[in-house]
Amino acid sequence: METTQREREPEPKYWHLRTLLSKALDTEFSVGEILPNERELAARFGVARATLRQALEQLELEGRLQRRRGVGTTVAPPRVGVDLSPSQHSWPGWSGDPWTATAAAPAPPPPAVARLLDVRAGEPVEVIHRTLMTHGQPVATEQLYVPGSGEPRLPAAEGPERARWLLRRLQETDASGQDRTVELGAAGAEAARRLERLPGSPVLLVTTRYFAAGRTAAVSVATYRADTCRLTFADQPALTALTS
């Protein structure tokens, strides 16, 4: 069989170093431990500091390392396992739901969400903003789109109380099912701000449709940090620390 040009290309130096560093993280360092400085690491592995930085950036992207200003580079905790099994969830806001509602306000949904909700383009719906925290850091942000903007009993202030009121209203509705899609994406400016990441950082996008009385009653678009989250679909607690 003819060898392709790609198969003949040597492994990039930074990737080989990334593999060596990953093994060192597994055997020599513990979670939260500060790594030696770049000069020491470059000397230990016999590489240029530019190559070392590439390898460290790759491991940070994979969630193995964390860089903190004033602290240095530390070994990251294991990824958080987020269970997406429908059996673990009813409506958003169910008892034990780890998400925190931060605000709600009427706004037109994105075109794709409008189609799922079967509302006219530009028609406002209620948008509930929620955040998922672990280890004191945000790991996911969610926009929950609910038709029915203009309900007279809604709290006027567009804050947490309005969001909680809408979630309670959903809880009073008989849910008939849900479906979900998962895809890899890049963080937009607003999601990046909420997740304390740079725009363009890799994220996992989870879109969930909630059904009631034969129609779509709500649509959730959740953005998870790809470097700190592992999505699972087994019957297990909603947040479980898993080994990398």
Automatic annotation (TrEMBL):
HTH gntR-type domain ranges (all copies): 11-78
Q: Which Pfam families does this one have? A: GntR, UTRA
Instruction: Name the InterPro entries for this protein.
Output: Bact_HTH_transcr_reg, Chorismate_lyase_/UTRA_dom_sf, Tscrpt_reg_HTH_GntR, UTRA, WH-like_DNA-bd_sf, WH_DNA-bd_sf
GO molecular function annotations of the record: DNA binding; DNA-binding transcription factor activity
Q: Name one GO biological process term.
A: negative regulation of DNA-templated transcription
Key words of the record: DNA-binding, Transcription, Transcription regulation
- Its recorded name reads Transcriptional regulator, GntR family
Q: Which organism is it from?
A: Streptomyces xiamenensis
